[in-house]
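Format notes (please read before filing issues)

Several people have asked whether sequences and structure tokens are stored in separate files. They are not. Every record keeps both together, in the order shown below: the sequence lines, then the token lines. Line labels are part of the format and must not be stripped during preprocessing.
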Amino acid sequence: MFVDSHAHLFFKDYESDLGDVVKRAADAGVQFIVNPGTDLATSRESISLAEQFEMMYACVGFHPHDAAKADSVSLNEIERLSEHPKVVGIGEIGLDYHYDYSPREKQREIFALQIEIAQRRNLPIVIHSREAEADTLAIVEEKLRQQPSWRQGKRKGVFHCFPGDVEMAEKVIGWGFNISIPGPVTFPVKPQKPNSMADVVSRIPIQHIMLETDSPYLTPVPNRGKRNEPSNIPLIARKISELSGRSIEEVGVATTNASCNLFGINIH
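Then the structure lines:
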């Protein structure tokens, strides 16, 4: 039993065969799929998918690429959408200094405002951070200090496609976050470029790790180069099993519990 904690099945990549994609996921043992929105339109589409498929849940929010589109009206709508019963978090939110599709100052502003939405709604957040770890951590730490009662006794969110090293993983886990691991953990290690994700997986407690595909991106080996989809989750689990010295069954149970506990999804 597995959970794909982060996919984007509302993308046009799945327009022609979404039903088959969902069936393959179920056949592969994926019990739940969480689709985080990237802007207002895709947040609505994520909710629509969650209404259409029992195994799907939605998150709503503005991705840093789309932060420039966000204003007070659209953020108010994100907060309203978060009241839907199948919305389980605010995301995908954060900072991306690799592409800088939105001005950095705007990214920081919208990230902070969306954390405040999550705090008002007592929902977890799904964080995107690329080449922006220092600012991401600073904003999260400030918001935690401002609202210490947020999700007391529960995990506060997840650092998706975890971008950091063991030290960063230990820090955010200590703050009450999980980390999620996608397909690149399966990529071959190059001597000149160690796979820090593999190092993190081998040293971090399994109960704080979640699985994700980030479909349609980041397809794991041996399917690299093809469109990604949730049915590839067992390939990621198998690699984590190998790296951590645990059985794939143990990885499945622990990562499923981590995802379901974070998002408040009941395991049948």
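For reference, the curators noted about this record: The domain at 2-263 is CATH 3.20.20.140 (TIM Barrel). The mean pLDDT is 96.
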